[in-house]
């Protein structure tokens, strides 16, 4: 992990634990009620982020709620679904870990609390969006609820890319501007040949350093690729940036992992 910026732990969760999360999401999506004007496409491309998430309070205020974000091309101009809604969801966030009992149990499980482990997603570093002072205090947990392959969108990493800091941040925009968030700095170009794929089987966990460059390719298969992902921050001697889009609220302060 220290050398590459990521670590693969196969079979970290059982098939039963993965199925319990997938079944719970099916129930949540079946009961999903999102007003058409709040239906937002989820993107990691900068221009699309600013146009979709960046102009939407629905996204910016989702840190302490369970909200739904959709794949590109699944909504018409009025926000109506063009395909079955259970196939339209790209991401559900950002408080499943706090309000849903199944995901809360997984997030705070004794496995996760072990000491010492410390569509297309374009190349990025998590610290661009989740910035701390000092850097290097954010760790991503990426849990495969189904087999993740090169065909259905497994993660790709540039090994060792977590040692060069970050050059771009997404921050809350000043009030009165046309978007809720903006980018400061620029993302360097990445050589595709530097990325290596990390296919992983159902139940596997990938630990992701906050500054390692990673991406996923378009799912070109007929199979879904469901994952549960969350981040933890080392709280001791660490400052969470007030400019981050995601902020704790009085209703939901950042919970301690060990609760």
Write the layout of secondary structure elements.
Blueprint (H helix, E strand, L loop, with lengths): L5 E4 L5 H16 L9 E2 L4 H6 L5 H4 L5 E5 L18 E6 L1 H4 L1 H7 L13 E4 L7 E2 L4 E7 L10 E3 L10 E5 L8 E5 L10 E3 L6 E5 L4 E3 L10 E7 L5 E2 L19
Parallel strand pairs: 2-3
Antiparallel strand pairs: 1-12, 3-4, 5-13, 6-15, 7-12, 7-14, 8-11, 8-13, 9-10
Family: Belongs to the PhyH family. PHYHD1 subfamily.
Pfam family, one: PhyH
Keywords: Iron, Metal-binding
Q: Your description of this structure?
A:
The strands form 5 sheets. A 4-stranded antiparallel beta sheet has the order 1-12-7-14, with no helix packed on it. 14% of the residues lie in helices and 24% in strands. It has helices at 15-30, 46-51, 57-60, 96-99, 101-107, and strands spanning 6-9, 40-41, 66-70, 89-94, 121-124, 132-133, 138-144, 155-157, 168-172, 181-185, 196-198, 205-209, 214-216, 227-233, 239-240. With 259 residues, it is of the alpha+beta class. The mean pLDDT is 91. The longest helix is centred in the first third of the chain and has 16 residues, at 15-30. Its cofactor is Fe cation.
């Amino acid at each position: 992990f220290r050398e590459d910026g990521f670590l693969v732990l196969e079979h970290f969760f059982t098939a039963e634990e993965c199925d319990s999360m997938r079944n719970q999401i099916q129930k949540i999506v079946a009961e999903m009620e999102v007003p058409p004007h709040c239906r937002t496409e989820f993107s990691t491309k900068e221009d699309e982020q600013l146009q979709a998430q960046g102009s939407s309070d629905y996204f910016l205020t989702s840190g302490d709620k369970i909200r739904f974000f959709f794949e590109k091309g699944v909504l018409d101009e009025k926000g109506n679904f063009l395909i079955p809604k259970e196939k339209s969801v790209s991401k559900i966030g950002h408080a499943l870990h706090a309000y849903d009992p199944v995901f809360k149990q997984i997030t705070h499980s004794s496995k996760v609390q072990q000491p010492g482990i410390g569509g297309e997603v374009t190349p990025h570093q998590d610290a661009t969006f989740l910035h701390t002072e000092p850097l290097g205090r954010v760790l991503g947990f990426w849990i495969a609820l189904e087999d993740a392959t090169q065909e259905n969108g497994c993660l790709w990493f540039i090994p060792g890319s977590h040692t060069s800091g970050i050059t771009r941040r997404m921050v809350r925009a000043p009030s009165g501007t046309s978007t809720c968030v903006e980018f400061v700095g620029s993302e360097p170009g990445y050589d595709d040949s530097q990325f290596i794929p990390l296919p992983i089987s159902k139940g596997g966990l990938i630990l992701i350093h906050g500054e390692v460059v990673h991406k996923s390719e378009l799912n070109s298969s007929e199979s879904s690729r469901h994952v549960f992902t969350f981040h933890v921050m080392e709280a001791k001697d660490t400052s969470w940036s007030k400019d981050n889009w995601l902020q704790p609220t009085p209703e939901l302060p950042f919970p301690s992992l060990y609760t």
